[in-house]
Amino acid sequence: MHLISSAYAQSLGGGTSMASLTQFAPLILIFGVFYFILIRPQQQKQKALKASVAAMKRGDRVITAGGILGTVQKLRDGTNEVEVEIAPNVRVVVLKETISSIVKPVAANDSKPVAVAPPSKVS
pLDDT tens digits, residue range 67-107? Predict the structure, then answer.
């Protein structure tokens, strides 16, 4: 009486490593695509945000994770707290980790000139 089928026994002993590699190649390719399209740019964005929060100074305009826009009034030394003015004479204390972006003002002379299309000739 045979307890193991012959097909199962062949698959256990006769396989090559090249066949198993070709089975995992699509999975490795998909992971590589996800890494370069999704994971790596997100890591770079987080690294840039962390650097800009570390370089934050008084007077910078910030947006918190809750969507509150305010101006940095005081950086508390030795803590991760920042005092932000959200309205005239209204100040709140937020954690640096909750700052989602620092708003850079665009000066009037920094904007790109609008490209004007040449006039079309009407016959």
Answer: 999 999 999 888 999 999 999 999 999 999 999 999 987 66
Whether 37 is in a domain gets the answer yes
Residue with tokens 């826009």: 69
Question: Domain span at residue 95?
Answer: 57-106
Give the amino acid at 33: V
Same domain, 44 and 62: no
What is the number of domains present in the chain?
Answer: 2
Question: Which of 83, 80, 84 has the alpha carbon at shortest distance from 70?
Answer: 84
Note the pLDDT tens digit of each residue in 111-120: 555 444 445 5
Residue 49 vs residues 1, 56, 103: alpha-carbon distances, Å: 68, 10, 11
In angstroms, rounded to a whole number, what is the distance separating the alpha carbons of residues 94 and 41?
Answer: 27
Cβ neighbours for 70, distance < 8 A, ≥ 6 positions apart? 61, 62, 64, 84, 85, 86, 92
